[in-house]
Amino acid sequence: MSDNGALYGLLGALGGAGIAGLATVFGPALLHRRQAEQRTSEERTLRREAEITRLLKMRTTGRAWVDALERTVQDLEAHRPVDIDRFDENVDRVSAEANEAGHALAHSGLWLSSQDTPPHGVPLVQAPPGGPGPGSANGSASAALSQLLGRLREATRTVRAEVLRGPAPQGVPVTREVVEALQRVRAARAQLNAVLLEQIDHISGGRARHA
Q1: Cβ neighbours of 97 (radius 10 Å)
Q2: pTM, to two decimals
Q3: Distances (CA, A) of 24 to 10, 19, 33, 34
């Protein structure tokens, strides 16, 4: 019995040493794996936040461009003179910001067409080789983004031509071309906003708030 007790004691000691050895080996490995998982989770969160920031930047810069055009048209409708140099300065600033925001969306897989939107609302946008097709979510966002920027450039040219003509006489409204150009801009912006909000909602797991 004493021999058996000694044997059991030896086995217990060896087992304890083995467990301690396993803990020494696998403890740091498990800690390293958990740290790697945490880093991956944090990087994924940062990527989501960066993508949402890019999408929101496109919304705000597009709105600033629209606002600049609408304020100019309001001045024209009120028959107030508009300084062409000031108009060009404002539009150059907001258009540069909007185009920069649009190109930044390439990081989100959105391809920005370099072509303007032709008349009658037919978007000229092609996905890059291997990129999202027009039927995909990113393809729809790319088409809507290209359409808005094309409409904004079109409206800018139309409003600028009206500014160059000078304030109209009292009782004479702005031209129909100006009114229709702004209507197309508003429609294109509404379409893009709907797509961008859908993207944001998807990225944030359904927690997006419409603004």
Answers
A1: 17
A2: 0.66
A3: 21, 8, 15, 16
Whether 130 contacts 77, CB under 8 Å: no
- Taking a C-beta distance cutoff of 8 angstroms, is the pair 182, 69 a contact? yes
Residue 185 contacts residue 156 (beta carbons within 8 Å): no
Q: How far is C-alpha 133 from the chain's CA centre?
A: 18
**Contact status, residue 57 vs residue 98, Cβ threshold 8 Å:** no
How far apart are alpha carbons 172 and 170 in whole angstroms? 6
Radius of gyration of the chain (CA): 30
Measured between alpha carbons, how far is 116 from 40 in angstroms, rounded to an integer?
Answer: 40
CA angle, residues 75, 100, 162, in degrees to nearest 5: 25
Show the low-confidence residues of the chain (pLDDT under 70).
Answer: 1-27, 31-32, 35, 107-140, 168, 171, 206-211
Residue written as token pair 């508003």? 186
List all residues 6 or more positions away from 96 whose beta carbon is below 8 Å from its beta carbon.
Answer: none
Other CB atoms within 10 A of residue 185 CB: 26
Tokens of 177: 């071309």
pLDDT digits (tens, 9 = 90+) for 179-204: 999 999 999 999 888 888 888 888 87
